[in-house]
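tool_log.txt
---
The assistant was asked to compare two proteins side by side. It first ran the structure predictor on the initial sequence, then on the second. Raw inputs and outputs are pasted verbatim so the downstream comparison step can read them without reformatting.
(1)
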Amino acid sequence: MSLFDEHNGPISGLAINNPSEYDFLNNLVLTSSYDWTVKLWSPDSKDSLRTFEFSDDYIYDVAWHPTNPSLFSTVNNEGYVDIFDLSKDM
């Protein structure tokens, strides 16, 4: 299965996590999509690790925090910015 098979719409953003002291967070990948979801990927897995379904509209982009490897944010068509902390809740 590929990243394109798991999303049900066009992929709108892709972000690769920066290397950190926490090995389990290194090189994780996030994809956002017009299917209203964000998916978390590991280079070691063929399937997504987690799907975040929280938006009621297209998600335009996703980005990792530049210094905190467990934080990422998204922005959707309604103009909302959502922030997630993987160290608090998967």
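(2)
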Amino acid sequence: MANFANGAQAQIILQLVVAVVLGGLIGLEREYKGKEAGLQTYSLVSLGSCLFTIVAAALFYSFKDLPGVSFDPSRIVLAVCTGIGFIGAGVIIYRQFHIEGLTTAAGLWLVSAIGVAVGAKMYLVALAGTVLAIVILVVFGELERKAIKRNKPRL
């Protein structure tokens, strides 16, 4: 396995904490709106995605110099994205002529990407993704509620 000397374990723990906090910020907004997937779910998805990314990188460095061994860490990131897609599909419900859970599914998919970014040490990108997600959920949500849905014809 990878060499964990010189504070590498502390760095990994910091990455995990950052992933939980960023995922949790988005989860707090969902919690505030009374959605089923909230603080815990979003934090766990971000944490899991971050951890898978860290493990993928560690495995890559463990096997990269072995003759005849091919290891592509992007496959693990692809598996995370696919797995979260299945979770997201499970939260989407068609009920009484409207769709529920689509924003939750998209949010879980996004928070997974934020976790991957933190796992890849792309902290500024992860932070920007978090801020943009909160802007979309809060500002665009309010705009949609006030301006667009009010003028939408009822069936």
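---
observation on (2): The chain has one domain: 8-130. DSSP finds five helices and two strands in the chain.
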